[in-house]
Amino acid sequence: MDFLRPASWEEALAAKAEHPTAVPIAGGTDIMVEINFDHRRPEYLLDLNRIELLREWEVGEENVRLGASVPYTQIMENLRTELPGLALASHTVASPQIRNRGGVGGNLGTASPAGDAHPALLAAGAEVEVESVRGSRFIPIDEFYTGVKRNALQPDELIKTVHIKKADGPQQYSKVGTRNAMVIAVCAFGLALHPETRTVRTGIGSAAPTPIRAKEAEAFLNAALEEGGFWDNGKIITPSVAKQFADLCSAAANPIDDVRGTAKYRRHAVGIMARRQLGWTWEQYRGSGRTLEGAA
Amino acid sequence: MRVNFTVNGRPQEADDVWEGESLLYVLRERMGLPGSKNACEQGECGSCTVRLDGVPVCSCLVAAGQVEGREVVTVEGLAEFAKDRAEHAGCAAGTCGTSLDAAKKWEAKPGQDSQTGEGVELSPIQQAFIDAGAVQCGFCTPGLLVAADEMLERNPSPTDADIREALSGNLCRCTGYEKILDAVRLAAARQERQGEAV
């Protein structure tokens, strides 16, 4: 095994180009477990800890440019207003020790369907900026996850920045697990209202081979909200609409039975989370304050 | 691979480090610092918690090569670290926490052994764990001490919810959580009282 320690982003890209099998290590909270347990012996480890730009974030007009290695702790503490869904999701990641090391880039690189950040990214809307010595490209989050623990990265590419839409409305996130810390999600759900475009976006975690959006549920709800003039009149959403939305979210899930839960339970829980989050976010939207900050 | 970093205020050099080795292994097996415990090796239990540039992390999930040039404080150095903090950056002065620069300047004083921690007064959190009977088998204690000390540095008047959250990554297999909570409350109360006295 070789340990590569690039001092700059350019050096990291060059190293990845030269050794496409090199495994990037930032927080190490995934890869070190695999090494400690002898599940993986990469030929090269590519340490990204010395690359400052990966730990920086910037709040722009429309997007937050989030460096791939910004630890979850920083997201929770500094980006609660701009990225309420992701801040809530970050708070459910493992424990303080893990949140101090891990970041969204690792979640994306591993691309586990159970990664906590995914539903929040899908709901908010995001693009992943990846780069290689050949150049950089932006991958829409909807096209990023290509299979179980597979993503759209080429072997010579590294994840640089995640460009996430700043919240223009309330966002929510919940995760089902057996305790409040140190759990892999049984399933998770994220919801974002986008009043500017009068749309709603969703994200489902741990209930399909990849993180997914419930697109039919979104389309149904978008149409129902438009038709009823809800965005303007701010009325309480009709219970039958909320139920139909929840049912469609459940139907979008394609879960499996495993040690953490059954497929049936996961589908049920996704529906419950969808209905509750619609209620919470809509109440927040109706409220006079219309604050964007996530609850909990 | 050779790794140079600072442990408990002293520059250290580790040679022939395997590239996949964890910081925990280097501390325990190469530097004779067995205070950080090796239990789950997957970041679940927190018994290997150390401060890396001031931030609590699971040392089993940090690759040794990643600590090159950085500052590590283990439970062995906790008493000295806490003492130094109390003297130089006490919360009474309104400046809670230890800056990276301050942490870097810190050195073990002559005559004190930062290896075993012998000859050093206990830190307030260590004393509180003893006084509250928060130590049973003791295996989770070092990790809890490092995590609790950092929380009290950041948040001198924690609520029970704050304490629970700060310690949520540390498992106690004896299930002695009530006494552990008592100990942290005790340390917080003592810290507060001392702050008033100053």
UniProtKB/TrEMBL annotation, chain A:
Residues of the signal peptide: none
Q: MF terms per GO, please?
A: FAD binding; oxidoreductase activity
Pfam families associated with the record: CO_deh_flav_C, FAD_binding_5
Ranges for domain FAD-binding PCMH-type come to: 1-169
Q: Which InterPro entries match?
A: CO_DH_flav_C, CO_DH_flav_C_dom_sf, Diverse_Substr_Oxidored, FAD-bd_PCMH, FAD-bd_PCMH-like_sf, FAD-bd_PCMH_sub1, FAD-bd_PCMH_sub2, Mopterin_DH_FAD-bd
Q: Which UniProt keywords apply?
A: FAD, Flavoprotein, Oxidoreductase
What protein name is recorded for this chain?
Answer: Carbon monoxide dehydrogenase
The record lists the organism as Streptomyces gardneri
From TrEMBL, chain B:
GO molecular-function terms, A-Z: 2 iron, 2 sulfur cluster binding; metal ion binding; oxidoreductase activity
Family matches, as InterPro entries: 2Fe-2S-bd, 2Fe-2S-bd_dom_sf, 2Fe-2S_ferredoxin-like_sf, 2Fe-2S_ferredoxin-type, 2Fe2S_fd_BS, Beta-grasp_dom_sf, Diverse_Oxidoreductases
Q: Which residues form the 2Fe-2S ferredoxin-type domain?
A: 1-78
> Which parts of the chain span the membrane according to its record?
none
- Pfam families recorded: Fer2 (PF00111), Fer2_2 (PF01799)
Q: What UniProt keywords apply to this chain's record, in alphabetical order?
A: 2Fe-2S, Iron, Iron-sulfur, Metal-binding, Oxidoreductase
PANTHER family, alphabetized: OXIDOREDUCTASE WITH IRON-SULFUR SUBUNIT, XANTHINE DEHYDROGENASE IRON-SULFUR-BINDING SUBUNIT XDHC-RELATED
This chain's protein is named: Oxidoreductase
* Source species: Streptomyces gardneri
